[in-house]
Amino acid sequence: MSDKKTKGIWKVISASSMGTMIEWYDFYIFGSLAVVLSTKFFPTDNPTAAFLSTLATFAAGFVVRPFGALFFGRLGDLIGRKYTFMVTLMLMGGATFVIGCIPSYETIGFAAPVLVLILRLLQGLALGGEYGGAATYVAEHAPKGEKGYWTSWIQTTATVGLFISLMVILITKASMSKESFDEWGWRVPFWVSILMVYVSYLIRKNMDESPVFAKAKSEGKTSTNPLKESFGHKYNLKFVLLALFGATMGQGVVWYTGQFYAMNFLKTVQSIDSSQVDMLLGIALILGTPFFVFFGWLSDKWGRKSIMMAGMLLAILLYRPIYRAMYATTDLANKTEIVEQTKVVPSMKEVDATKMDSIYTTTKAYTDGTAVEEIKTKHFENGKLMIDDKGKDKIETKVTKKINSGDMWFLVFMVFVQVIFVTMVYGPIAAFLVEMFPVKIRYTSMSLPYHVGNGIFGGLLPAISTYFVTTAKDAGDPEFYLEGLWYPIGIAAVCFVIGMIYIDRKINTLHD
Predict the structure, then answer these.
(1) For residue 46, what pLDDT is reported?
(2) Each residue's pLDDT tens digit, 38-84
(3) Would you call 440 helix, strand, or coil by DSSP?
(4) Alpha helices (runs of H) in 205-273, residue ranges in sequence order
(5) Cβ contacts of residue 280 below 8 Å, gap of 6+?
């Protein structure tokens, strides 16, 4: 490729990637702060239910992504790629900023979760239109035979967006007290997004339309009814379904397991300090992100299918051993407590005229450097211990572990391995989808299977897997923490079988 063309496509990638990265940042700020948000926008009398409600609200944004794909995909095939994902950028940024402004549940009651849900739905609709536009736009600028390499840069944006969201949260936490962050500081990452969106808008407004789409439009070869041509014709519908059940469905669950499920597992099941989790995830993401480009480039040489199927197979075989090793690493049963350093500090907190909390804060130290804080809260009303909705004494126990550097780096490696699986299935997927469909209906046709696979199958993963873990724990299963993995393993296995049987290597050059 000539220097002029190379410079031109880098300009395209930079503009597209920055906007897409910011949209992912906006989308994942909510997931990154799920534990905190569960105490702000939902009733706090049942922490587990509040956390599950937060995850369900987070998942709702994924569920509507296919509708955003249909609406904005149709728009993109009718009027153009550029203007469509300008709209999605502004919609996403505005919704994210407003989430940071909503009063808490204590202030406005059930209006808080309702408003958050509405804004999450708007975020999901916007993201449904963003990815297809950016991937299509870059692919239509890329030289023949190099789509995997150039579109893989777009693939890094989701992970970079997650990484930046974690870093913004860490910096915000470090700049204020724990009490201030819990009271109002958690809103700052939502507010920051509006500045990032403004910068991206300034960059994107100067972009030209895709030359491939512009040519098709000038020749009168664009579609007058993209939805009908995409899903109403049996031949094209076959490829839409193959893209979903043979590729994006498995890619979606691998993506969310390797990043979001890992984060929730470390924070809620392993009870590791939130800042340490954000830090180790950030390191693993930095180390793993270049492999998106590597596997995208490799797919130009070896084919998309072989790379993606290998990533799914490795995930299917290794998820349970990986998470078993992660859990054992911080399991206090495998550590030696320094008993003489254990301290218990009792305190009382008056909730209102009739309610009182009795709090016992226990700190423990272990020989390997692990430090544990356990806060046990007993809720009393009129002098009597309250009963929860299951008829048991209302006692809450919160455990926070500060892990040693050895455990920290082992967990970084375990998450990094999962990120490698993600890069194998996700790096080639944009080029794979673009090449399956003709220009005139490409935006619509590729967006739907991508967002069903990621939005429905992937986006529901945190809520479904957390439910499986909670149910297994209540049933007394000693390996309850592994039960949530059956969902991604099962979905990825079905996708692997369908992909291996029905995906043909010729798809790589169908519309290259």
Answers:
(1) 67
(2) 888 877 666 766 776 776 777 777 778 888 888 888 887 887 777 78
(3) helix
(4) 211-218, 226-231, 234-243, 249-256, 262-264
(5) 266, 408, 411, 412, 415
Gap between the Cα atoms of 512 and 437, Å rounded: 9
Query: In whole numbers, what is the pLDDT of the chain averaged over residues?
Result: 85
Specify the 3-state DSSP secondary structure of 272: strand
Q: What is the DSSP string of 355-413?
A: EEEEEEEEEEEBTTS-EEEEEEEEEEETTEE-B-TTSSB-EEEEEEEE--HHHHHHHHH
Residue/partner pairs of 231-235 with CB below 8 Å, 24 or more apart:
231/448
Top pLDDT among 359 and 61 is at 359
Q: Indicate the residue type of 463.
A: A
Cα angle 448, 453, 454; round to 5: 100
CA–CA distance, 402 with 368 (Å, rounded to integer): 11
Q: Is 6 helix (H, G, I), strand (E, B) or coil?
A: helix
pTM for this predicted structure: 0.82
- For 253, 330, 399, 407, 485, the CA distances from 269, given in Å and listed in that order, are 19, 10, 10, 16, 13
The number of beta carbons lying within 10 Å of the beta carbon of residue 244 is: 22
Fold annotation for 3-332+405-509: Growth Hormone; Chain: A; (1.20.1250)
Using alpha carbons, select from 8, 12, 10 the residue that is nearest to residue 207. 12
CA distance 154 to 235: 28
Which residue is it, tokens 């070896």? 302
Domain residue ranges of the chain, discontinuous segments joined by +: 3-332+405-509, 339-402
- Within 10 Å of residue 262's Cβ, how many Cβ atoms? 23
Mutual angle of helices 429-436 and 290-302, in 10-degree steps: 40
Q: What is the pLDDT of residue 455?
A: 79
DSSP-assigned beta bridge partners for residue 375:
361, 398
Beta strand ranges found along 126-242 (DSSP E): none
